[in-house]
Amino acid sequence: MKISRREFVEMSLASAAGLCAGGYATSTVAAEASTSLPEEDGYKLWLRYAPPGDAAKACRQTVQQIRVEGTSATSGIIRGELHSATSAMLGGNVPLNEKDLVGGTVVVGTPGNSALIRDFNWASAWGGVGDEGFIIRSTRIENKSVTVIAANTDIGALYGSFHFLRLMQTGQAIDKLDLAEHPALQLRLMNHWDNPGGTIERGYAGRSLWQWNELPGKISPRYADYARACASLGINGAVINNVNADSHILAADNLRKVAALADGWRPYGVRVYVSANFAAPVRVGGLKTADPLDKGVADWWKAKADEIYGLIPDFGGFLVKANSEGQPGPKTYGRTHADGANVLADALAPHNGKVMWRAFVYDDDIDPDRAKRAYIEFTKLDGKFRPNVVIQVKNGAIDFQPREPFHPLFGALKQTPVIAEIQATQEYLGQAKHLVYLGTMWKEFLDSDTHAKGSGSTVAKVLAGKIQPSHLTGMVSVANPGLDTNWCGHHFSQSNWYAFGRLAWNPELSAEKIAEEWTRLTFTNDDKAVAVLRNLMMGSRETFVNYTMPLGLHHLIGGDHYAPQPWNDRAPRADWTATYYHKAAADGIGFDRTKRGDHAVEQYFPPVCEMFDDITQCPEKYLLWFHRCAWDYQMKSGKILWDALCAKYQAGAKEVAVMQTAWQSLAGKIDARRHKEVADRLAIQAADAATWRDQILEYFGRFSKRAVPRSS
Ligand code: GCW
Predict the structure, then answer these.
(1) Distances (CA, A) of 627 to 66, 611, 616, 619, 677
(2) Tell me: the pLDDT tens digits for 446-475?
(3) Which residues approach ligand 1 with their CB closer than 6 A?
């Protein structure tokens, strides 16, 4: 059942007023409400394995027993997962690895561990799925109807098993399957900003999951639960510590702790990476310098890499934040980012390790505009990096704002692999207090056409190496789980972890499909409720933009990155203030990045450059990012800018009320505990949205000298 956003708003409002007799009427749903749903705390994430309703009957035919081949730890995990999940969903014990093959057996394995699977002549499919992909087919063996989940590797079989379970859980038909999947991107990593003391930079869901003081001797069961959740989405690695890195993560005793995590995660296909502090040779190694061209420094990194691989043979590599926000780096020694990345790359290369070098740099001697700096620095260095270096670029050129145009570096580096960094932890998007589904934001980014090689050169294609061939591809997300029982603070923030994983596997998936899938897994398979939930999620990011930073406004915050602070004009750096970005004055508002301004638009390929440059073509959602406009500038709607701005803030605040109503209408369809916890946070969000609207409009009104029109 599909309804448009407008219909959703109207129906929810009507239902609030008791006018709507349809599926959204609060009273109708409430009357149906039974209190029998068991309370849930959110710990199980999207792996609840609730019975899939009507679909269960059909599933029972197809899943009568499970046979998982192989003796590896991963095979054991697959066995446990399939057995407990299918038994829970189908309401009874599903026999496991019985001697006889019967109709309705689900067979899982690889050509390496299963004669049954080896016998299949699936040559055409095998090549395509690679090391991490899988095939799922409904077929016949010994004249019995079976389902085969086959892969080249155990990890592929694990991913295939989770995929199969997802189909079951979401109530899809599983009796005529013929599918093959493989990930579009290679590096699909969580980036944790966790500090050894247990705090998390920009973490809103409790303290760090990693118990440094207990490792390596004591292994929390939560480590495996974490890896399982990652594996269920195909996430294949985790950078476990903050990019503002404590150099001592590289000290011998800490490396043993890291190795203990790696040991636990290996069977799930989750490799460990660490953030390295560029000054580690000095701070840990006791050298006098960390100059990347110094032989002693290069030797130190080589020895360190050897030590790490001695403990962790499949260690992934280093993530580095260098010469950014006070972190040390090669420029400290008069060297380039390439020199810096390469010394680490040379140390890791013999072990097949990678360096992910962040492009989040904005030294103010490069250009007065923060948005231009990374592009200037990194395009100069294209081709100068070792083959095992990737440049990790945030989705936008400033910093995870509620809306940014895509970073001009995507498509601009022709000889250096680029991976994308997105942020699931909602640093600038209401943290874990506001319900904001980021799938839509990431799709806007991934679907942006860079025109790097003509039209259709979307960011997704650039990342997948389809525009310029790239031997290394990937997308990573600043992670949002912590020790909170429900992992992510807000129940809906789990959807951002989920959406990241699904998009890193396949950036072409739609945000809507992912939202629907997550909703069914996490809350309910009730179609009417799913429609309400999906629409709630799909509009939530635009709503957030509306009540915080619409029409291309950005960085209207202070140090907490949460509350409105458009007046913020004092910070250790000009580009940490709000006034630097909005430049509101009596004559207008906005940052002129056009060819008549600071030329930032020229960092984009034509015709994107011209589109952003020409105020008549520039999408209004980016208007004040690229253009400075008078308060009475005529918008496409015919409204003047001031009135349009007011309307956005008013609409945003109103939409949160609609979200509350929609959520209320689900009482009884969702267990009482989670329902209340979300309702409580929506109340905070509604109050915050009103505060944003009022404070921003009051502040900008001081410059526009115009009254706030009555909200329509
Ligand atoms: O978004 C900013 C954050 C910093 C963060 C930095 C970065 C880890 O406010 O907390 O530092 O970006 O991405 O390096």
Answers:
(1) 61, 12, 11, 11, 41
(2) 999 999 999 999 999 999 999 999 999 999
(3) 193, 201-202, 243-244, 321, 325, 360, 399-400, 427
Pick the residue whose CA is nearest to atom 11 on ligand 1.
244
DSSP-assigned letter for residue 204:
-
Is residue 596, in this structure, part of any structural domain at all? no
Specify if 148 maps to a domain: yes
pLDDT of residue 122: 66
Instruction: Report phi then psi at 417, rounded to 5.
Output: -65, 140
* Domain CATH code at residue 24: 3.90.1330.10
Establish if 611 belongs to a structural domain: no
Return the closest-CA partner of residue 544 out of 423, 434, 383, 394. 434
Dist CA 457 CA 605 (whole Å) = 11
Give yes or no for a cis peptide into 313 (omega within 30° of 0).
no
Rounded Cα–Cα distance for residues 326 and 494 (Å)? 32
Cα–ligand 1 centroid distance for 495 (angstroms): 22
Last residue of a domain, one of 131, 157, 181: 181
* C-beta contacts of 681-687 below 8 A and 24+ residues apart: 681/432, 681/433, 681/434, 681/435, 681/490, 682/435, 682/656, 684/433, 684/434, 685/430, 685/433, 685/434, 685/435, 685/656, 685/659, 686/653, 686/656, 686/657, 686/660
Q: Is the pLDDT of residue 517 over 80?
A: yes
Proportion of the chain above pLDDT 70, given as a percent: 94
Shared domain check, 211 and 163 = no
Single-letter residue type at 527: D
Q: Which residues are catalytic?
A: 325, 399, 427
Nearest atom in ligand 1 to 244's CA: 8
Atom 3 in ligand 1: which residue has the minimum CA distance? 202
**Separation of 324 CA from ligand 1 center, angstroms?**
9
Please indicate, yes or no, if residue 670 is contained in any of the structural domains. Answer: yes
Please tell me whether residue 67 adopts helix, strand or coil conformation. Answer: strand
CA quadruple 105, 108, 113, 114: dihedral sign: positive
Neighbours of 695 (CB within 10 A): 17
The type of residue at 234 is: G
Grade residue 165 by pLDDT with cuts at 50, 70 and 90. very high
| Angstrom distances, CA of residue 346 to CA of 275, 281, 306, 311 | 17, 15, 12, 19
Domain limits for position 442: 187-507
* pTM of the predicted model as reported, rounded to 2 decimal places: 0.95
Phi, psi of 525 (to 5 degrees): -100, 5
Scanning 583-671, the segments in alpha helix (DSSP H) are 608-613, 623-626, 641-664
Distance 202 CA to ligand 1 centre (A): 8
Ligand 1: residue of 194, 201, 561 to mutate (most ligand atoms within 8 A of CB) is 201
Residues near 573 by Cβ (< 8 Å), separated by ≥ 6?
364
> How many angstroms does the Cα of residue 439 sit away from the middle of ligand 1?
21
Name the DSSP letter for residue 390: E
Pairing outcome for strands 134-141 and 178-181 = antiparallel
Query: What tokens does 679 get?
Result: 């309702």
Q: How far apart are CA 580 and CA 587, in angstroms?
A: 16
Given 132, 148, 181, the domain boundary residue is 181
Label each residue of 136-187 as H, E or C.
Answer: EEEEEECCEEEEEEECCCHHHHHHHHHHHHHHHHCCCCCCCCEEEECCCCCE
How far is residue 344's CA from residue 333's CA, in Å, rounded to a whole number?
15
Q: pLDDT tens for residues 181-194?
A: 999 999 999 999 99
